[in-house]
Amino acid sequence: MMRRSVVLWLVLAGCFGVSMFLIKQEVQQRESRLDQLNRELLENQEAIRVLRAEWSYLNRPVRIEALIRRHLELRPTEISQRGVFESLPVRITAVEDQAETGQ
Amino acid sequence: MSRVGDPVARLRTVRIDGAAKQALETGRNRLLVAGVFFFFAFALIGIRLFDVSVMKGLDEPRAGTRTDPITLKTGRADIIDRNGVLLATSLWVPSLYADPQQIIDPQESARMLVKTLPHLTLEELTAKLSAKKRFVWVQRGLTPRQKYEVNKLGIPGLHFQHEERRAYPQGNLTAHIVGFSGTDAVGLAGIEKQFDGLLRDGAEAVVLSIDIRIQHILREEIARQIECFDGVGGAGVVLNVVTGEIIAMVSLPDFDPNLAGDAPADTRFNRATLGVYEMGSTFKIFNTAMALEAGTATLESGYDATKPIHFARHTINDYHAKRRWLSVPEIFKYSSNIGSAKMAVEFGSRTQRRFMEKLGFLDLAPIELPERGRPIAPSRWGRLSTMTIAYGHGIAVSPVHLASGVATVVNGGIRWPVTLLKREPELRIIGEQVLSGLTSEQMRRLLRLAVAHGTGRKASADGYLVGGKTGTAEKPNARGTYARKSLLSSFVAAFPVDDPRYVVLVMVDEPKGNVESYGYATGGWVAAPAVKRIVVRSAPLLGIHPKDEKSPEIRQILDVNIPQAKGQKRLASF
After folding, report:
1. CA distance B12 to B10
2. Which residues of B touch A42 (CB under 8 A)?
3. DSSP letter for each residue of A64-89
4. What confidence tens digit (pLDDT) does each residue in B186-200 have?
């Protein structure tokens, strides 16, 4: 009777010890992974800032304009190229539709 | 033993002799004491165990609960334009330093480094690398590419230290607005100085009202005029009439804020806000508005401009002299100094002063920059001052003042404080009613008249209904007299003038006439064409559609009756 309970306790203690070790190991691994991820996060954020600055630098209107003049056919819009919906002639399709349905 | 009633047996079990009894008592007492002691000890441990595991357990810090995201800490927040384009940002840049004790061959190392970093000289670097020190800066603020190149050289004894540095990717374009900050991240000029505290502890970017595209157009067109007419500088403003937001603001010559330390003082001077100038004829806008508002003149009335005015040893003359009776619209159209001065005398000095005050022309402009020029107004505001102020001499204001004043005149008479920060459309600010709506409407007609038929014809951008006024001021020289040759030519316009949305101001400092302008360097020749090009180029970006200028609706809004001297009226033909 006495020996059986002692064995039971020993087994339980052993199980707890092993599981404690495993959990601690896992936590340590995850923490170092977290630190690594945070470091990467900072590095990436820094890289994004540099890239954003470079993007703004490369998009200077002076540069874009020079590039367009060199490589594209685009020119500033003439007033004659612009219009509004109100200036369009009245649609005549409605009348045609009526004529068709009337037939 | 089975007999219970046996007195002998009974006596034997109870009766124990003295010594044995004593020993038994002692043993029992000891057991009891030990038992009680152990009981309390275990009870204490038990209570403590319960306390630690159940009660205190909730307060124990848990390793897994840190969820706040890691963000990069920078010394200063970003500055962006109204569309989110980055204007100023803080970057961690590598700086290269050397430990001369670790350098094996200073001569060879210096030779290799100079190839990669061309700003350095071989002699200086060799001397630095052979020094008897443990630390020397080689170069501060390297680009990522330079860092890579230096690493590739593989020289021992070279190390990097990361330092924070302010970068202005747009360079010269917004130099005077954004300003710059020093090496220790303290704002020294512009928005950087004005919002230094906010930028320092704020993670959120400061959003300006500037549109970088319009800013570019304004800068390019003014630079072109300065070059064409050999001017010493220039300034320009594009202002939203409805909200008071400054969409673009330029001062030329300008500087690169990334290298602000090397920039000459002249280039760092903000002519648009810090400089105050006698603006010349553009002030006739305010003079005419004042007369119409005071009721001393109407669009039907007029003044005799046959002869120059002689007053207190001064002579007021006309540049485009007509030598006849001129109606109020004609005075505006031909920019008559004589007529304007007579108009001003009628409503008087006190009205003029009060009106200038209401327009904000006697105070600092309410703009978010530390570089603001205080207007110069006469201390004794007499009759002569009143006459000269009528055509823009004797009072000096900054270009931002002028643009804000014109916006007030054309937008129905309400003065909105000008701002460099983006305003949310739903946020209504409080403006001050300076002029009546009727006066504002009449002024819009007169501004259109000056562009359609008067001195500002070169600003007429077909379809965009530009209305404006030229200004050509003679700059006072060191002796306080006016130099005929040194001019300040400007043009201020509102468009589309039937329902004004934007005010454009262009000013060129000391332009000289050229062959193309037949020797003229006036506002109509120098500044007006730039305004036209700015309007044509920026209107599509600002969402303004061209209109038919000859349509009856537009003519009804903008036509002016020009009365004749003999009382006959003639419709100005548009």
Report:
1. 5
2. 70, 72
3. HHHHHHHH----PPPGGG---GGGSP
4. 889 999 999 988 888
- Bridge partners (DSSP) of residue B252 are B234
A56/chain B closest Cα distance in angstroms: 6
Q: Is the ipTM of this complex over 0.85?
A: no
Taking only the tens place, the pLDDT of each residue in B381-390 is 888 899 999 9
Cα dihedral: A9, A11, A16, A21 (round 10): 140
A36, closest residue in chain B (CA to CA): B70
Could you count the other beta carbons within 10 Å of the beta carbon of residue B133?
Answer: 11
The CA distances from residue B233 to B40, B251, B266, B276, B403, in Å, are 95, 8, 10, 14, 18
- Pseudo-torsion of CA B546, B436, B328, B313, nearest 10°? -120
Q: Which range has the worst mean pLDDT, B92-96, B288-292, B475-479, B536-540?
A: B475-479
Establish, for the pair of chains A and B, how many residue pairs have beta carbons separated by less than 8 Å.
65
What's the rounded mean pLDDT across residues B211-239? 94
| pLDDT at residue B63 greater than cutoff 70 | no
Residue with tokens 């052993």: A14
What confidence score (pLDDT) does residue A1 get?
Answer: 64
Query: Are residues A53 and B91, on separate chains, in Cβ contact within 8 Å?
Result: yes
Please check whether residue B301 is in contact with residue B307, taking contact to mean a CB–CB distance below 8 angstroms: no
At A101 the pLDDT is 62
B63/A27 Cβ within 8 A: yes
Give catalytic status of residue B281 as yes or no: yes
Domains, chain B, in order of start with CATH, read: 79-208 (3.90.1310.10), 215-262+274-571 (3.40.710.10)
Residue owning tokens 């307060």: B59
Does A76 contact B462 at a Cβ distance shorter than 8 Å?
A: no
**Can you state the angle between helices B284-294 and B337-358, rounded to 10 degrees?**
80
Find the radius of gyration of the CA atoms of chain B: 41
Question: At B505, which helix (H) or strand (E)?
Answer: strand B502-509
Q: Half-sphere exposure of residue B13, counting CA atoms within 13 Å on the CB side?
A: 7
- Count the alpha carbons within 13 Å of B40 in the hemisphere toward its beta carbon: 5
H or E, element range at B90: strand B86-98
CA distance A57 to chain B (A): 4
Nearest chain B residue to A51 by CA distance is B91
| Two tokens, residue B164 | 């924070």
Q: Which of residues 87-106 of B touch A (CB under 8 A)?
A: 87, 89-92
Contact (CB<8Å) B540/A57? no
The chain A residue lying nearest B85, using CA atoms, is A56
Which pLDDT score is estimated for B288? Answer: 93
Does B232 or B201 have the greater pLDDT score? B232
Angle between helices B284-294 and B399-410 (to 10 degrees): 40
Task: Output the CA–CA distances (angstroms, integers) from residue B298 to B325, B485, B524, B544, in the order listed.
Answer: 15, 35, 26, 32
Please answer yes or no on whether B144 and A50 come within 8 Å at the CB atom.
yes
Yes or no, beta carbons of B89 and A54 under 8 Å apart: no
Q: What is the dihedral of CA B555, B404, B180, B73, to 10 degrees?
A: -90
Query: With contact defined as beta carbons under 8 Å apart, do B303 and B326 qualify?
Result: yes
What is the average per-residue pLDDT within B296-308?
Answer: 87
Q: Which residues of A touch B463 (CB under 8 A)?
A: 79
For residue B366, whether the previous peptide bond is cis, meaning omega lies within 30 degrees of 0, is no
B463 touches chain A (CB under 8 A): yes
- Hey, is the C-beta of B72 within 8 angstroms of any chain A C-beta? yes
Q: Which of B281, B336, B460, B538 is catalytic?
A: B281
Reported as a pLDDT band with limits 50, 70 and 90, residue B1 is very low
